[in-house]
Amino acid sequence: GATDVVARVLSEALGQQLGQSIVIENRAGGAAGLIGTESVAKSAPDGHTLLLHSNAHVVAPSLVARMPYDPIGDFAAVAHNGRVPQVLVVNNRLPVTDMASLIAWLRANSGRINFASAGIGSANHLASEVFRAAVGREVEMQMVQYRGGGPAMAAVISGEATMCVDPVASAVGHIRGDSVRAIAVAG
Description:
With 187 residues, the protein is an alpha/beta fold. The protein is built from 7 helices and 5 strands. The two termini are 17 Å apart.
């Protein structure tokens, strides 16, 4: 996913500055990053473990009744590393090429649409909900949660899901490779 792409770019520069290798450990499992974030929160506070995350500290506390960590007390902020725009992609076999044709297709196929998500509270889940609200309630879409952005994108590529919102950084290869079609970008 996008977090991995950004982590690898940052780790190269950080490793050169520190004069040592940086090991990146992705904690899969979905839950909008809660699993990996909890792991970092419970790690030894020795300065050797960093967390790169998009929205766990902002969104999760409002969506999760009992947080497995204190988003403020268990962490020390180090740096803001940028913003990642999101892109709405569809299965490339859909007969749509832009937002107008997508909305017309959605209305004609209401109730038969699976919208892939990387999990409740993830950035792509929230962007998907904004899109669903903008399209209107007359279009029924089923949100299907996957264990991260990679599996959600794989579902769109295979046709298991109709569409998803994904960070541009992780979707661009699939778009260029013609395995999905980009419809709109939000940033």
